[in-house]
Amino acid sequence: MPVRVNWGTQNEHFLFDLPDPSTPLGTIREIIAAHIDVAPDTFKIVHDGALILDNNAPISHYAIRHDSILQLVTPTGESDEERLKITAIKEQLVAIRVLGNELARFTQRESQSQATYTKQLAYFQESFTQLLLRLDATDLQKNWVHARALRKEGVASAQAFLDRIDAART
């Protein structure tokens, strides 16, 4: 009896013959991906209620047999709330880049008084701190991987500019 693979929201499924038990899970993942026309890394495989993760382990390690049923779990996509958060984070990233360009132009100018220089650095420091705090205050759910990655990028970028400002003061 072949292995049954359930996927999608409409009880879609297909059957395939199981290769040798020493076959790595990654090979099974590629067979499944070719069958449903998606990239192999875009879904997770569940067997007997357990999430199967190690693509290098042989399928015998997971007790996948000829009568097994595999369930595919695919990401559901971004919710409206997540898209709004991503948009807000991207706006902060743009603001960080624009302010970073202004900081670069400012630090390249040679003829400026010490008072002006100190005052402008304080302005940049305050602006980057506000952007950093806005990003930090953005509440994101655990499974919003893209939004979390963008926020992390923004925080790192703002922090790097703050470090440059601190270095310029010394």
UniProtKB/TrEMBL annotation:
Residues 100-168 form the BAG domain. InterPro entries: BAG_dom_sf, BAG_domain, Ubiquitin-like_domsf. GO terms for molecular function: protein-folding chaperone binding. Gene3D superfamilies: BAG domain, Phosphatidylinositol 3-kinase Catalytic Subunit, Chain A, domain 1. Pfam families: BAG. This is BAG domain-containing protein. It comes from Panaeolus cyanescens.
